Amino acid sequence: MFAETVDHRVLRSAAVLEALATRGLQLVLAVRPGDNDPLPVLAAAREAGVCVAVWPMLGDADGRWASSANASRFADHARRHLAALERAGYPPDELCLDLEPPLAVMRRAIDRGAMLGRVGGERARCAFELERLIADAAAHGVPTWGTVVPLILADERQTPSWQRLLGTPVDALSLRRVSVMLYTSMMVGYSRGALRRRDAEYLLAAAALRARERFGARASVALGAVGRGALGDEATYLDTDELRTDVAIARAAGIEDLALFELAGALARPRWQEWLDALVEPSATSPVTRASRRARLVWWTSAAVSRLAGVGR
Length: 313
Prior knowledge:
This protein has helices at 8-11, 14-22, 39-48, 71-87, 103-112, 123-139, 161-166, 184-190, 197-215, 240-252, 263-267, 273-280, 293-310; strands spanning 2-3, 27-31, 52-56, 94-99, 144-148, 178-181, 219-224, 258-261.
């Protein structure tokens, strides 16, 4: 369960930790410069039996998420928090690397209704810095998994064009799991009416199958959104039935490791525990996803860009 904007006092409350613990859910805790010290949350979660993944982020001006534009700064930021938590005796159970283009790049693409463009920086250096961070975390018993942009699924194995364009290496990193962000509510919301709910369901099904094919047992899917995050205008689920359907679709594709974005949105709704239940208890009926011309066009366009970007390399 991603927790990006939840007050730390709420996160370490008995009600929230008990709800996570009884459902066997991991807390994915965002840690940004200037945030509250994550140590009290780690300590309370450990006592409650809740697994915690630390989810480092930079300031918005520095890109927020890990990419070739900020890899060295990002790795240093994550390393400082890991070292501080270990010194205090509360190392996290896992480290989550959020591999996305800088926030400003994402914002421009959304505002212009355009596909994401090339991210600058040294790509080889980015992979080196992030892999070194993963190795440092592993040396202290902390495994690392990553959450990634779905466009990388349009790449062929031998030509990781989208990874290069977006400055987000995936294949080069020794990640325990690769969680692809397949947020159906945002697919519909940001398409400005071009995609409908049934189109998003088809994209989720196709992408989940592709993730399983690409990453095998390491494949994971992040579902959403329940609440808004860094972009501030993310479209959210209408109700828990939509989430239950998405869970069933992902599991039908062979994906068992699922995440939900984000806890703040669930807590803001009545009977917030029902959102946690929906994540662990999918729809009782088998999902039926219908072929969608609009969704197929999205996929074909993404694959075409990947192939063209790989020409001549």
